[in-house]
Amino acid sequence: MSLHICVIFLLAGHTARGQDDNSKFAKIEGQVQDSVTCQPVRKAVVILREDRSRQMGGAVVLTDAAGHFEFSNLAPGTWSAGIQRDGYVTLGSFEDTSATQLRWKLEPGMALKDLTFSLMPAGVIAGRVLDSDGEPLAGVSVQLADAAPKKNARPLPWAQTNDLGEYRLYNVAPGKYAVSASYEPDWHRTGAHLVLAPAASGKTQPREDYMTTYYPGVADLSQAGQVVVTAGAQISGIDVHMTRGGVVRVRGRVTGASSGFPAIVMMMQLDTHSQSVGKSYDAITKPDGSFEFDNVLPGRYLLQGNAGFDTDALRGSQRIDVGHEDVEGVQLAVSRPQKIEGRIRMEDAGRLPEGLHAMLVPRGDNPTHQGGGLGAVRADGSFTLDAVFEGTYDLMLAKFQGEPDDSYVKSIRYGDEDALTGGLEVRGAGIGKLEVTLRDDGGTIACRVATEKDEPAVHAKVEALPAEPHRAALVLHGQCETDDQGQCQMRGMAPGTYFLLAVEGQELPDVRDDDTWHRTEKFATQVEVTARVAAHADVKLSPPHADGE
C-alpha cells in the first residue's frame, strides 16, 4: 500500500550490534568527496539510521583524511544515511521517505564497499543593512526567501546584523534567492508608544515603521532582486536599504477564556507570494480579555490566541486584513480542542492494510503548521483523534509496516461534507464521524525521467498531482525518486488524470498553491491511470527553479 501521503516508520534507536557472528550482520563503507574538485572531504558527518528510526537515534562516524567512512555490525533491514559538513549542501533527508539515494536494504553478511558520495560546495551571501538615512542597522534579522513554497524544504539560512550592519549567510545551496531583512527596535517589545512631535502644519505626523524589505530595497517580494548562487560562490555587496511604511493599531478582545485568565495573542503576517511568515507581533491579554498591537504594518495576518495548558488548553485563530486605518473591535474566540472519531473501510468488504495510522495536517496558508494529532487505526477500522483545534486539514494515512500495495483513498466524508476535495473543516461543534473509504485496485505510474540531453536523470524527485478538483488533496499525491537508470514508480494511485513534475537538485514545489501551479504546469507531463494497470510516462526534468519565474 502506498497511499502516497507519507510512509512513516516506528521510532527506535540505532542497532549497531556486537561481533559474536559477523555472518549475521552487514557492513557499509565508502568515501565522501567534493563534487567540484573530486577531492576527499575530511570530517564530514555521516549519520546512519534504520528506517524505523528515521526521526531519532542512529550511528555517526566522521570521515578521515581520505574521506573514508565505515559502518559495521549492522542488523539486516532497511537503512538510510545523511551526510553533512559545514561549507557543503547536506546530502540526504531522513524526513523524505521517498528518497532512495542513501537508502539500502541490507541482508545478513552483505558488505557494500567503495560507495562514493559527492557533496556540493555551498555558497555565501554577505552584505550590509542600512536605514532610510544610509546608516548601518544592528540587530536586523536577514534571511533568504524562495519565490514559491517548496515541499520538504530545509530551513533557509538566516543571520543577524552586527554593530556595523553587516551580515553573512553561509551554507547556501545553489539556486536563486531573494534576501529579506526585518527590523524591530528593542523598545517595541516593552509596550512603549512612540510620541511624535507635531508637524510644521500643526497636524499630527503619520506613524511609520520599518517594513520587511527585500534586496535591494523593496517591500514586495515579486519586485526583489534575485541573487544567483552557484556551487561554492562567495557573493558580497548584497546591501539592503530598509524601507518605511505607515503603521496602525489593532485592538480586540479574546472570548471563550476564563475571566481573568491571560491569553497569549500573536499576529503573523502572511506572505502572499511564499506562504511564509513575515513580521509578527505578540501580546498578553489584560484581565478583561482585551489586547492591543501597536506599530502594525498593512497586510494580511493570521491572528492566533492561546490560553491554558495541556487538557485545559484553548486555541483560536482567524485572518484579518490590516489597511491604513486603526482596526478596532476584533473578536478572537478560543475554544477547547475537539475529539474526532473516524472509521476506515475497504470497499467490497476487502481487508484493511495493517499498521495504519490516521493524522491531520494543515491545509492552506497556516504558517504555524500545527497538525491535528495522530491516531492508530484499530482492527475494526476505527480511530480517534483526541485533540483537534479549529482549522482546515488534510487527512493523511501513515503506514507503519509492510510493503507498498495497490490501496488508495476513494472518499473522505465528514458529516455531509466532502473532506477529500475541500479538506476537513473543523469549526465549532463536531458535525459527525469521519468516514474514509479505500479501494485496493489502484494503478501504477512507471516513470522514466530524462534530462534535456535525453540522458537518465538520476535521483530526480517526481510528484504525481491529481487533476482538479483534487489537486490540493495530499492523500492522492504520489512521489518517488529515480534510480541510476532514471526510473521509479508509484503504486496505489487512484484511477484518473495526473500531472507529473520532476526536479533535480531542488525540492518539489508546493503546487497546491494556485500561483505556483500556474507557473509550473507547462512543465508537467499528463498521464492517465486506470485500475490495476501500469501507466508508463516519459518525463522531462523541469528547469531549475521554474516555479520562481
* C-alpha end-to-end distance: 37 Å
Mean residue pLDDT? 83
What low-confidence regions span 5 or more consecutive residues with pLDDT below 50? Answer: 2-20, 272-276
Number of domains: 5
Class by SSE composition: mainly beta
- The overall strand count is 41
Helical run tally: 1
**CATH overall fold name of the largest domain:** Immunoglobulin-like
The CATH superfamily label of the largest domain reads Carboxypeptidase-like, regulatory domain
| Beta-strand residue fraction | 35-45%
Characterization of this structure:
This protein has five domains: 22-119, Immunoglobulins (Immunoglobulin-like, Sandwich), CATH 2.60.40.10; 123-245, Carboxypeptidase-like, regulatory domain (Immunoglobulin-like, Sandwich), CATH 2.60.40.1120; 247-333, Immunoglobulins (Immunoglobulin-like); 338-439, Sandwich (Immunoglobulin-like); 443-548, Immunoglobulin-like. The protein is built from one helix and 41 strands. The strands form eleven sheets. Strands 9, 10, 12, 14 and 15 form a five-stranded antiparallel β-sheet that branches. It starts with 25 loop residues before the first strand and ends in a 9-residue tail after the last strand.
